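Lab channel / #folding
Pinned by the channel admin:
"Please post every new chain as: sequence first, then the structure tokens as a reply. Keep commentary short and put observations after the output so the thread stays searchable."

First post following the new format, from NK:
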Amino acid sequence: MERPIPRGTEVLVRVEAAGLCQSDLHVVDAAEGALPYRPPFTLGHEVAGHVAALGPDAEGTAAGERVVVYGPWGCGTCTRCAAGRDNYCDHRGDLGWHGAGLGRDGGMAEYLLVPSARHLVPIGDLPATQAAPLSDAGLTSYHALAGVRHALDGSSVVLVIGVGGLGHLAVQMVRATTSSRVLAVDIREEAVDLALRSGAHLGVPMGADTAKALGAETGGVGVDAVLDFVGNEATFALAVQLLRPGGELAVVGSGGGRLTVRKPGFLPAGFRLSLPFWGTRPELAEVITLARAGSLHVETERFPLSAAPEAFDRLRQGRVRGRAVLLPG
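Reply from TO:
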């Protein structure tokens, strides 16, 4: 493809790094018509680089500035978009896209055309390989945690289920922004090891005795919040078993699980469920601040852009440690 030319408020970003996400697999593997997107378009919604050129009406950045791209692109005119909450744009259902790489051309390329500088967050000297994954893996985890933080205090316990690209950052965020005890679960031994390296107080493999072992760690009381980055039947069952009354369950993973809500029923009294999607632009700025302060580190596997098929295969097989990142050039 030819190098794009920015017009109006558009900004052209020279891509330094682009992360891979399970969402990319969902797009690639989706049945025709299952998603609102109109192909063809370039994938890549975790993008960091530097400003290469600006349209004549672009404001808020300058050529050469190093930035991370805020991926959710809304209508830009509703009250939520005006507040930097494009992830919950009032007109999302009418747009036909969710943002960069999700219905619109994304960053698995040398250049990315961004509609407005309002979608850019400065990263200073933060390496692009760290900044790119933070725009989704970091931001989504941070947004999920923000939704349950009100339920946490000095004696709280948080359970993180699924310690992949998002989960290992969630562990670090809980440690960096709360005084809660962090428990972590994954079906892969190497992911449990990653959880412990990321600061989890306890990491255990998923198995028949997982609920019993984790329950014992809480003295039988249960956990205050669960961040589920898998979202299948088994993880829902584990979450419900371990949540204490008044507990919070944030489901981030799209594993196809179902949770039946009924009263009276088996759910903990006062139970609250949230389905967070991505995050806000102000939250992305906060995530970048944490990373620049040394509180967050993304475990990455790097691939040249030309090796994208290999990276996708590793991701599909569950063999990526942390986050896979593509490097153009």
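NK: The longest helix spans residues 128-148.
TO: also worth noting, Residues 168 and 195 are 6 Å apart (CA to CA).
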